[in-house]
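Why do we care about 3D structure at all? Because function follows from shape, and shape follows, mostly, from sequence. That is the central idea of this module. The next example makes it concrete: a single protein chain, its amino acid sequence, and then its structure expressed as tokens.
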Amino acid sequence: MYEQLKNSQFARLLLITFLILVLQIPTAMLQGLVSDRQNLRQEAISSITSNWGREQAILGPQLYVPYIRRSQVGKDEKADVKYGTFLPDDLQVTGNLKTEVRYRGIFEVPIYQTKLDIRGRICPS
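And the structure:
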């Protein structure tokens, strides 16, 4: 009987299938652990950045000039207030950037501080 099972292709296939299924258990446990760690890391980042502020966009100076746009539709005249936007011809940005690492549990989160000096010159055309 043992010799028949030993040489049987079906028995080998059944054994390999059983081993694959048994080895899926620790794989699933590790995936759960990795997912929990990723969630904890995201919570640590959110906790620290809520005190320091989130990402920011820095724009240079802009000049908004109101003007009246008139249009004639039949006998009626229509006037709309529009705004022209002028950007600087010359823009200079200088600053210092400081980095610092904050810790929440086992997680490190870098934070940044900067002081900027933004200067622009708008030339009339």
